[in-house]
């Protein structure tokens, strides 16, 4: 993982499916001589076993955070999304930027057929609705916070028919977030290579608000994960 991350040399690194804080620290050590801090690593419980999950989200950066924490998604009626988000506020000059690292509900269906498929979709939609509510709640404690990045594994792909009616990405775009992949054809933005009956997909996104993207996103292929590394360069406000 460090070998491909080192090529990108990011100022901020948003991680998903990382095991725990100790693993983050090992990654920091492997990235030397570049100097990173572990700003936050979640400690969510596994939805099946109830024990500590093996798929956490984290944020690493080359500077300290103004604030950083993680929160689990809240159960809304019968909808109980797994995991949650990692969040940090970083200051660049006079600008403050909020970063969210997320890993939304997978498309795993053990039973229930189409009902279970729709339940997974609804869990992702509820998660981003909660994310926007969290963003709105930060206006008072962080009055300088005017730029936002939401990135990670969204587990949805509008190119595929099964996701055609899903609102996860649309809700964020309606709220003013820009999809950095919006101008790229599928062949240029495959972040999760197909395998067996599963086609190539764009499951990983960098959604941006209050910042301008510079050039096009870059996808670095890696064998360290079944997802590729997405790199986006942004201009500060």
Describe what this molecule looks like in 3D.
With 237 residues, this protein is of the alpha+beta class. Helices cover 21% and strands 32% of the residues.
Lay out the secondary structure:
Blueprint (H helix, E strand, L loop, with lengths): L1 H7 L3 E7 L2 H10 L6 E5 L14 E6 L5 E6 L11 E9 L2 E9 L9 H25 L7 E9 L14 H7 L3 E2 L24 E6 L2 E9 L8 E7 L2
Helix pairs in contact: 3-4
Number of DSSP strand runs: 11
Q: Which sequence of strands runs across the widest sheet?
A: 4-5-6-7-9-8
- Number of distinct helices: 4
| Major sheet | 6 strands, mixed
Mean pLDDT: 93
Q: Radius of gyration over alpha carbons? A: 17 Å
- Spans where pLDDT lies below 50 across 5 or more residues: none
Q: How do the SSEs run, as a string of H and E?
A: HEHEEEEEHEHEEEE
Helix/strand class: alpha+beta
Strand proportion: 25-35%
Beginning-to-end CA distance, first to last residue: 31 Å
Give the CA-based shape: globular
Summarize the structure.
With 237 residues, this protein is of the alpha+beta class. It has four helices and eleven strands; from the N terminus they run H-E-H-E-E-E-E-E-H-E-H-E-E-E-E.
Keywords:
237 residues; alpha+beta; three-stranded antiparallel sheet; globular
